[in-house]
Design a protein that fits this description.
Length: 228
């Protein structure tokens, strides 16, 4: 009988039941804002990583943050417990570009605002921020902007460096700019923003690199589409 009463108190707490509709509404708004943030990041972000894949995290991050803040905001004990619980979390995925970190903070901020019951302020602030991002993206986009994000990875002992890669690109008539360069004893990774006029030039570039370093890996992210 005592167990049944404990279960009933746990599931049918009057205060919890009364706050449930508000929580569900907050989570629904959080999901919608997370989707909007994902689409803005995909279409107007400038990260060299796979933006579509990275943007999948925003929905879960916004909703989860909203849920956590909704639970702990009224209890100091739960807040302290949250600090202790989060202290054991370790993120192993490296955030290589500041833009990724900025969007993660924005997603967390949305969850914090909704969880704290500041839905109107959160929506208004997000509208302004996303509006600025869209305007910036529209002004930065242009027909002369290189369309291909190219990443070249080789073993650290390879003689193939960023300068040699740029020379190969130039010999094929491509316009290229070095965006990121990571060199460790184990590997070398160089990311370029490139404009190839033809798909065949990309194939020639890959073949020439493999002649210089057979273990080279080339990955491409096409932003607009190359012309044949």
């Amino acid at each position: 009988m005592q167990i049944e009463q404990s279960i009933r108190d746990l599931l049918w707490n009057p205060e919890m039941v009364a706050s449930l509709p508000k929580l569900v509404l907050s989570l629904g708004i959080a999901a919608l804002l997370g989707i909007i943030l994902s689409q803005v990041y995909i279409h107007f972000g400038h990260s060299l990583s796979n933006r579509r894949l990275f943007a999948r995290n925003f929905l879960v991050l916004v909703v989860t943050t909203t849920l956590i803040i909704s639970i702990v905001r009224s209890s100091m004990a739960l807040s302290l417990g949250l600090v202790g619980a989060l202290s054991i979390v370790r993120f192993r995925a490296a955030i290589k570009e500041p833009e990724e970190l900025a969007f993660l903070f924005l997603a967390i901020s949305i969850g914090l605002g909704l969880g704290a019951g500041q839905a109107l302020v959160t929506i208004a602030a997000l509208a302004v921020i996303l509006g600025l991002i869209v305007v910036r993206g529209l002004f930065r986009e242009g027909p002369t902007q290189p369309n291909l994000f190219l990443t070249v990875t080789t073993p650290g002992t390879s003689s193939l460096g960023a300068e040699r890669i740029l020379q190969v690109l130039t010999s094929l008539g491509a316009t290229a700019a070095l965006k990121r360069f990571d060199h460790t004893p184990e590997s070398l990774e160089a990311a370029f923003q490139v404009d190839f006029k033809q798909v065949a030039h990309l194939e020639q570039f890959t073949n020439q690199l493999r002649e210089l370093s057979p273990e080279v890996r080339v990955s491409c992210l096409d932003d607009r589409g190359m012309m044949n």
